[in-house]
């Protein structure tokens, strides 16, 4: 099969297509013919080895490695202890053998049938990002009447958060870069849309009750300063800028606000499945509309990573074998 592999850490150019042996489903596994791969910004950090610097608990994979986790596709074969009834069904799940490939191995228990009412790419756009967005809403305890600042509001998670915040009866204040992304955020329900690429952007934003933070660095530091004293909550779930925000503990005490991170939702499969079911149900009912971005051929994985790093993408991005 054809697969994208990383032979050395570095820029997008280290992603190259190789011919490799087809994987085989072992006990408790299924082999899937991949129809789409969900791309995540974190995969650019893994490829460049920035993840090891940002998250020192992240294990560095042995090279060469096929990147990626999220796939949707059709089950072609099953392991010796798995029911053959799955063969021919369309599923979504995490690839144990790497996702940037024509074939992928999934745990049979984690091969989720494509939900009724959703296309494969809509489901893939809700698979990880939907779980993250719903989990963030729970973690931040967003309630009606609050003002909620959503960083990277035109991205895969941010675009879902804008909708969920609005659905909760709160006011979504969207941070994004460029007129096109600001327009997307407004179309999704944001009451305010602010370009955080402009100097002193924070001076044009009134205090907020909640910040849902994925950019990091000075952008998130400025967002923290907007939290309403005594009631504000900030939940950090990403560092797309490549740096954590530097927020002194004395500022937490002075403002009387809460700062937390989002736990690894995948570490609790039961909880993750509950969040996923909620995201899928909202998507199928039309209450949550994933923004589908560009689909890239497998051989253009480097261009896809470059676009992610240059912040030119909106919504969910895909690789297509």
UniProtKB/TrEMBL annotation:
The keyword Oxidoreductase applies. Coiled coil: none annotated. Keywords: NADP, Oxidoreductase. One of its GO terms (molecular function) is quinone reductase (NADPH) activity. Pfam families: ADH_N, ADH_zinc_N_2. One of its GO terms (cellular component) is cytosol. Residues 10-319 form the Enoyl reductase (ER) domain. This is NADPH2:quinone reductase. It comes from Umezawaea tangerina.
